[in-house]
Amino acid sequence: MTEQDLWDETTRLTEDGQLRRLSSVFARFIATLGHAPLPALLACVLLSELEGRGHSCLLLPDLARDPATLLGWTEQQWRDLAHAATPLPKTARAWHTLLASCEQVWQVGELDFDQPLVLDGERLYLRRYWRDETLVAQAIRTRAQGVRELDVAAVHGWLNKLFGAPQGVPPDWQKVACAVALRGAVAIITGGPGTGKTYTVARLLALLFATAPDAAQLRIALAAPTGKAAARLKQSIDKALGDLADRVAGELPLRELTKRIGAARTLHSLLGARPDTRSFAHHKGNPLDVDVLIVDEASMVHLEMMAALLDALPPTATLILLGDKDQLASVEAGAVLGDLCHDAEAGAYSAATLAYALQAAGETIPASFAGAGGALAQQTVMLRHSRRFGGPIGQLALAVNAGNVEATHALLRSGAPEVRWIEHAQQQQLVQLALTGYQPYLALLAAGSGASHDDWVRAVLRSFEAFRVLCAVRDGEWGVDGLNTAIEQRLVAARLLRRDGEWYVGRPVMVTRNDYGTGVFNGDIGLTLPDPARPGSLRVYFLEGDKVRSVLATRLRNVETAYAMTVHKSQGSEFAHTVLALPKEGAAMLARELVYTGITRASAQFTLVSPGAEVLSEAIAQRTHRASGLRAMLAD
Asked: Are the beta carbons of 341 and 188 closer than 8 angstroms?
């Protein structure tokens, strides 16, 4: 076989839609840097392809086995590509020997000539992902190993005041989480919807103020991956702190202290993102001016962003990560939160941690959660009791997360008003469901703004946010593109909207790229409404908590219509009624985490629309696996 045979096969796979064009181009680039055996070039194709699918590295054992499943290919597709690079090494050790001999590959521990590829044990990386993963592992490990000196008796007293009388079945994991987070430079608080992550962090903030040597000087920042998630974080914390302030009014001026906490920001904004560059204004040489940083929806934070965040965080600052480890990982490479709290359910708390939890929080952690976990495990707490998701929606989410297909089907067919399954559905049924779901916001549009334009805008935006169609895929009639077109055409045909161009009153749009000039970011969703100051002009309005901001429609270049959106883009949002559409084909690309995330976006009603039961069963049976070395690096 020759290089041309390999390039011909990659071209065929690219034309069939099985391979990104970039994957072949990257391997060809590597070939220009010096001689490389055909199997090594094949590994480069796969490495680039997996990076585009969220993996931070290529595991040599996966390469030695049949990687068709990992790539979502048929066995024949993999055999054809593998044949073009024969003979292939048969074992991970043999692959390691071959790759280590390539001049384009730097083997960790050897002399470094800035090669583009890095071989670290049984993991092959693009250099920047190895660098990011190493930075994250070192920074987290260093932060987790340091334990601060505390007045444990004072902490115990304050926790009793902040949480009041015991509630539910002990231990109170929220109370334990506050105690644990106070003693280190990093803490992870994970849990499903309704387990009270922001409720807990509000009490943690009060505890920080109460125990700080100079509370008035404590610098606290709130952040999240998206603008909507950031606004929800700030709104939830403000409400929780407001309720808490009355309880401690005589001992802690909480209302005055919390006024110093600014608005929650996107991570891009916090770090000082700059146009046309991947670098940020804040980094190790120009660190963030914070003492405590709280990041919500951490499951959405990809590897490169987490590395940039940790690089910019002062060593003396405390990092608190909040998120649901069972949700979908970020669209880009890495599954950082999942890696960091992979064993959170087991606890694996040391004797010292168990003793501290009893002394500081007054909570006895059961012996079943004891173990020999590492330093990060001692700073990780999983909240286990959902106060909001106890009904059919919560039960459905738990059944999906457990991989229980029979229980999932039974709940969907139970007749409970909170959950519904439209089986063997046609696209027009989903379109009609969307027509009904969007009626309230369309009615407000038709009524007009009346006396107060601002109040009308808020009402329209909130009404639109009460319902959403979520898709598992982008393409096809069951994907975002097909459904947005179908829903829009149906609304226009029903005279519920009037479209006379690209921009029209009532058009919902999603921003698809960060735009620092207009202050909108990837994932932001807004509605197109009349501009009261300029008759005939349209503005796109975005709701952030109780605040509304707007941008002239003609200034927004990177947007798409958003009656339907992907499950990935819905993370950080919540809708009273959520509709999840599964496709007829492509079940191999679906996974349990996607279905779980779609269900947990619903606060009051969830509807699943699918062409049959088998696609749901196949999705639940399949778990997302992302190749990463972060857990191994943390353990080293």
From this structure: yes
HEC-encoded secondary structure of 398-461: HHHHCCCHHHHHHHHCCCCCCEEEECCCCHHHHHHHHHHHCHHHHHHHHHCCCCCHHHHHHHHH
When pLDDT is averaged across residues 207-234 and rounded to a whole number, the result is: 85
CB atoms within 10 A of CB 549: 16
Distance CA 57, CA 65 (A): 16
CA distances, 26 to each of 13, 48, 559 (Å): 15, 7, 29
Q: What SS3 class is residue 632?
A: helix
Choose among 162, 178, 177: nearest CA to 244.
Answer: 162
Q: Which residues contact 322 (CB under 8 A, 6 or more apart)?
A: 189, 190, 197, 198, 201, 294, 295, 296, 297, 298
Tokens of 26: 């990257």
| pLDDT, average across residues 481-494 | 90
241-245, 331-335, 501-505: segment of lowest average pLDDT: 331-335
Q: How much is the pLDDT for 389?
A: 63
Q: What element of type H or E holds 161?
A: helix 152-163
pLDDT mean across residues, the chain: 87
Q: How would you label 73-84 residue by residue, b for 16+ Cβ within 10 Å and e otherwise?
A: beeebbeebbeb
How many angstroms separate the CA atoms of 530 and 549, rounded? Answer: 14
pLDDT reported for residue 464: 92
Give yes or no for residue 185 having a pLDDT over 90.
Answer: yes
Predicted local confidence at residue 314, as pLDDT: 94
Q: Taking the CB of residue 124, how many other CB atoms lie within 10 A of it?
A: 26
582-606 tens-digit pLDDT? 887 765 578 888 898 899 888 889 9
C-alpha to C-alpha distance for 139 and 283, rounded to whole angstroms: 13
609 neighbors 579 (Cβ within 8 angstroms): yes
Query: Which one-letter amino acid corresponds to residue 386?
Result: S
- Is 119 within 8 Å of 100 (Cβ atoms)? yes
Write out the two tokens for 567. 């499950």
Q: Give the confidence band of 357 by pLDDT, cuts at 50, 70, 90.
A: very high
pLDDT tens-digit profile of 129-166? 999 999 999 999 999 988 888 889 999 998 988 887 66
Q: How far is CA 334 from CA 93, 138, 427, in A?
A: 25, 16, 34
Please determine, for residue 304, whether its predicted confidence score (pLDDT) is greater than 70: yes
Q: How many Å apart are CA 69 and CA 73, to the nearest integer?
A: 6
Q: For position 242, what pLDDT does the model report? A: 82
**By the 8 A CB rule, do 144 and 184 touch?**
yes
Q: Which two tokens stand for residue 79?
A: 């055999």
Sequence-separated (6 or more) residues with CB below 8 Å from residue 143:
184, 185, 186, 319
pLDDT at 388 (0 to 100) = 63
Read off the pLDDT band of 167 (50, 70, 90).
low
Q: Give the single-character DSSP code of 273.
A: B
Torsion angles phi and psi, residue 376, rounded to 5: -70, -35
Closest among 53, 46, 50 to 591, alpha carbons compared = 53
Could you count the other beta carbons within 10 Å of the beta carbon of residue 87? 11
